[in-house]
């Protein structure tokens, strides 16, 4: 344990000497080294790290890396997760991605939870509350509107295109392709292989 503290102290000392303008941050539960809330450069989180604004490369090792506003690349290669509370622009890779505000870019993870996502979500499970563009996963669940859902099971309140084994929507504005397709406004409410907007 003493060696770990010495190593962390040396890492902090080196980072403050080399990156005097908060270009590096080490995030630990309950503390950031240095304590700046805005980082433009690299942030390394161990177990947990949180700040307000992050631009650059965010690396989470066995950690949840949390920030309010993010631009750049999030990497969580060793059982890490990414959380953005307000705005996101970039690429996120982690076991889980949680985006509570407006996001643009691409996220890849086992489970992705988003509010308003413009871009690509790739995961085993993708869950979106308001709007999403492209969702690719085993299960895609959209409480609001999605443009494209490709998966084994797809659900969207409103959608343009779904490709999967089972597709569900209340408002189809395009086409569903799958073994069974449920669309309240389809040319049939339930139809095998494909379904289209009944208003066409």
In short, what is this structure?
This protein is mainly beta and 200 residues long. It is built from one helix and six strands, in the order αββββββ.
Largest sheet entry? 6 strands, mixed
What structural category do the secondary elements indicate?
mainly beta
Q: What's the helical proportion of residues? A: under 10%
Cα-to-Cα separation, first versus last residue:
68 Å
What coarse outline follows from CA principal-axis ratios? elongated
List SSEs in N-to-C order: HEEEEEE
Give the averaged pLDDT, no decimals: 90
Strand order of the largest sheet: 2-1-3-4-5-6
- What is the domain total for the residues? 2
The gyration radius over C-alpha positions equals: 21 Å
Strand content: over 45%
Question: Which regions contain 5 or more consecutive residues with pLDDT less than 50?
Answer: 13-20
Topology, number of strands: 6
How many alpha or pi helices?
1
Describe the overall structure:
The protein is mostly beta strands. The chain has one helix and six strands.
Tags for this entry?
2 domains; elongated; mainly beta
Task: Summarize the helices and strands and which ones pair or pack.
Layout: H1 2-18, E1 24-28, E2 31-33, E3 38-78, E4 81-163, E5 166-183, E6 190-196
Parallel strand pairs: 1-3, 3-4, 4-5
Antiparallel strand pairs: 1-2, 5-6
């Amino acid at each position: 344990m003493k060696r770990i503290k010495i190593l962390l102290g040396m890492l902090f000392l080196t980072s403050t000497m080399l990156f005097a303008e908060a270009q590096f941050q080490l995030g630990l539960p309950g503390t950031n080294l240095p304590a700046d809330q805005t980082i433009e450069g690299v942030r390394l989180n161990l177990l947990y790290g949180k700040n307000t604004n992050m631009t650059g490369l965010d690396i989470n090792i066995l950690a949840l890396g949390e920030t309010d506003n993010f631009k750049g690349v999030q990497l969580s290669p060793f059982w890490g997760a990414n959380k953005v509370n307000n705005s996101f622009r970039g690429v996120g890779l982690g076991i889980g991605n949680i985006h509570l505000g407006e996001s643009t870019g691409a996220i890849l993870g086992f489970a992705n939870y988003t509010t308003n996502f413009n871009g690509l979500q790739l995961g085993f499970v993708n869950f979106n509350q308001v709007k999403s563009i492209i969702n690719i996963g085993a299960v895609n669940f959209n409480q609001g509107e999605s443009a494209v859902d490709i998966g084994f099971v797809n659900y969207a309140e409103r959608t343009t295109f779904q490709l999967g084994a089972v597709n569900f929507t209340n408002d189809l504005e395009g086409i569903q392709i799958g073994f069974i397709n449920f669309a309240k406004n389809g040319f049939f409410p339930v139809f095998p292989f494909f379904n289209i907007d009944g208003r066409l």
